[in-house]
Write a structure and sequence with these properties.
463 residues; alpha+beta; Immunoglobulin-like; 3 domains; 33% strand
Amino acid sequence: MLGRCLCSAVLCLFAYLAASSEIEAQQLACNSAPIRFNEPLENSFVIADLSDSGVHWGDRSDCGLQNFTGGFGNAACLRGVSGAGNPIDTTLTTLAFDISCQSNILLNFQLSLRHPNTGGSLRLEVSSDDGLSWSEIWNWEEDVGPPFAAPGQMIEIDLSPFSFPGASLTRLRWHYLAAAGSTAANWYAQIDTISLTCTESPRADLTVQMIGSAGPVFEGDTQRYSYIAHNSGPADASNFQLNALLPNGVQLVSASVSSGTLDLQGRFMSVGSETLPSGSDLIVEISTTFAGAATGAGPQSLLRFDSSVQSDTCDLILNNNVQIFDVTVLRDRDGDGIPDVADLCPFDSTRSDPGFRGCSAKLPRIARQTLRSLDRMLRILNKIESGNAGKKHELQFKRQLNQFSDLTRQSSSALASEVSLPALRQAIAQYRQIASSVTSRKIRAAKRSKKLAEKIEAQIVYG
C-alpha cells in the first residue's frame, strides 16, 4: 500500500495506478456520497512525496493516531517521522472530477491540524487541467482543533469560480510544506468526510453554420453568405453573441440580421442579443466582394472565414460553437475569361499562341526548357509522318523523351505561381501519349496523333 511505503513521487504514482485497477475508487463528485476513507486511500487519491523526505500522506493506521477530525473510523493522515532531514513537500490529490455547468459548488471536509514547532503550511490547491497547473485556494498556517484531541473543524470552501464549460478534469490536492528539521512526531494533519454539493446550471447547445459558395470564385466577384446560429436548448441562451472575422481580401458590401444588434469594426463583425430562445435561430446575411489586391500573388488563393457563438448560459458541447469556412478565389489578370490557374499565358490575353514569344520570356527558365523539349518532340513526329524518319530519329525521340521527363519532374517544384501547372501537366500527359505510340513503333498511331500534337502546340507558348 502506498500509505505504508516510503517512496518517491514517481513510484507512488505507479503504485496508485496498479492499485486503482483492482479496487473500486471513491470518486469525488457533485452531490454524491462523501469520501469517508473506508477504502484504501491510494485507490482514490494520488500520493506523492515530492522532496523524498520520507513523510507522506497515508491513512489513520499509518499515523498511529485516533481520528481527531470529528469523523468516525478512518481518515487521511500525515505525521512527522523522526530522523528524516529533508524539507517536507507531500501532496494528497483527488482523481479528476467534473464541475462543468454547475453553480453553488461547496467543498466540505473535516480537518484536524497541528503544525511542527518550526512551522508548516497546509495548502488546498485546485487544477482545472487534470493536474498540469495548480492554483492555491486556501492556506492553513495555524493549528486547527485541539492538539491530539477531537473534534477538529468542518471546512467549507466555494469552488464556483472554477466551474466553466469543459471543466471536466478538475482536481484538488492537499499540499503540506514544512522546513527541514520538522520531522519530530509531535505534529500531524488529518482530513475526513470530503463532500461536494452543487446546483446544476441551465444548459444550452449553441451551433453556428456558414452557408454559401466555397468557390471557385473570381476576383471581383460578389457573393452572398449566411451565418445561421441555432440554440438546441434545453435552456434559453442569455446574453448571446455571434462573432465573425472576414479574411483579408474580402470587402463587406452589406449585412443584415434577423434579430439583435449588429456591430462592425473593420473585418470583425458581431451580433448581440439579450437571449436566443431554445429551438430558435439567429441569421446574419452578408454580401461580399473578393477584392483583387489582397488575395495574394498566386493564380489562386484560399480565404478563410471564421465564426463562433457564445452566451452566458452554460454550453457543454463546445466543438460545434465554431466554424471555419474556406473559399477558393481564382485570378484572371489578363481578363480573357480563363483563370490564371488554367492559363499558360496569364499576363496578356493577346499572347495565346506560339507566334507571340513575349509571354514565354516571362516564364521561369525550367518552364521554357520544358516547352522547348515538347517542341523538339513535335518536330520529330513531323519527320516520322513525312516518311523521312529512320532508326536514328526514333533513338533521338527516346533521348528527348528522357530529357523531357527529367524537366517535367523539375518543373513540378520550379514553376512559379505565375504559370499554370495544371494546364502544363495536361499538355505533358497528351505528349506522353504520343511518345508512347512512337517508341513502340506504332507509326500509324503517331500519324493519327499529329493533329492532336499540333493542337497542343498551339496551346503552349514556347521560346
